[in-house]
Amino acid sequence: MDVVAAMHAVGLEPLDPYPGSNKPWRCRCLTCDSLVSPRYNTVKNDDGGCRVCAARKRGLGRRRDSDECAELMRELGLEPLIPYPGSNVKWHARHRVCGLDVNPTFHQVMSMGAICPHCAVSGFKPALPAEVYLITDTLRAVHKIGIGGLHSNRVKLWTKKGWSVYRTKRFTVGADAYEVEQRILRLLRVDLALPPYLAEEDGWAETVSAEAVSLHELWSTIELIAAEVLTAGTTAPRSDGSPFHDHEEVGADGVTR
Fold first, then answer.
1. Burial readout 182-204 (b: 16 or more C-beta within 10 A, e: otherwise)
2. Checking DSSP bridges between strand 249-251 and strand 164-171, what pairing results, if any?
3. Closest CA to 184 of 169, 199, 164
4. How far is CA 189 from CA 3, 148, 222, in A?
5. Residue 133's beta-bridge partner residues?
6. Contact 123, 114 (CB under 8 A)
7. Are 29 and 127 in contact (CB under 8 A)?
8. Is the dihedral of CA 77, 82, 86, 90 positive or negative?
9. Could you tell me the residue ranges of all domains in the chain?
10. Can you tell me the distance from the alpha carbon of 96 to that of 175, in angstroms, rounded to the nearest whole number?
11. Per-residue pLDDT averaged across 189-212, rounded?
């Protein structure tokens, strides 16, 4: 049995090329859609699959030692910043995707997955394919960057509100799309000191003045950051088995480039 088939056999879909038997291998659990990173050696020795599913199957109320709880948090992308405080006590941790601090309880994490209010995108699943989109409202002279699952209707909803699509870029793994979005926002807010352009309304935090940066400049920067996030050769197949390309874009005319 090859390494990919071995992962499939325990219900895991590899999202990156095989990294070696003793290195974490980013996978999506086909049962719960969690993003997990088991080592192939662990899986091969019948001691691993999705630790999140395993923990839920054993029961949320079972006593665990602090090391096991911390490891389960890390499997879901949360780095504990203090020792395990108890199942129903807020646990100060850092969300690895966005780098910001969160305070979920261990019970919440085991029940609902990684809980990060900073990353809250309705229905967004970081283990599934997603896209970064750049849209513009010419009447208000404002651009907006955002992310959404490939089968979500977020972009369509924005177009109904008067926004036009400039470009979208697809990613095999939603966590990568989120990383690109967050780097762009840090660049705009911190490096360039450009505040959100719109007042508080839905999606206002991801807006920027069209006079401060052009669509072409913004998209070129997105491309550069995406190239950093997507290292060469790390693309994985879509859920239907067809391949993604490193730079698969869809323009406003709907044509894939």
1. bbbbebbeeeeebebbbeeeebe
2. antiparallel
3. 169
4. 43, 21, 15
5. 146, 168
6. no
7. yes
8. negative
9. 3-119, 130-251
10. 10
11. 83
Q: Would you say the C-alpha torsion 112, 53, 234, 98 has a positive or negative sign?
A: positive
3-class state of residue 163 by DSSP: coil
pTM of the model as a whole: 0.58
* Partners of residue 142 on adjacent β-strands: 137, 209
Helix (H, G, I), strand (E, B) or coil at 43: helix
- C-beta neighbour count of 213 within 10 angstroms: 16
CA-closest candidate to residue 62, choices 92, 54, 79: 54
- pLDDT tens, 49-83? 787 777 766 654 455 678 888 888 887 778 999 99
Question: How would you list the strands of the sheet with 142-149, edge to edge?
Answer: 207-209, 142-149, 130-137, 164-171, 249-251
Residue 138 has which token pair?
A: 């010419």
Confidence of residue 219 (pLDDT cuts 50, 70, 90): very high
Q: What is the pLDDT of residues 83-111, one digit of tens each?
A: 999 888 899 998 776 667 888 888 777 76
What are the Cα distances from residue 98, in Å, to 77, 115, 147, 177, 243? Answer: 10, 12, 14, 11, 27
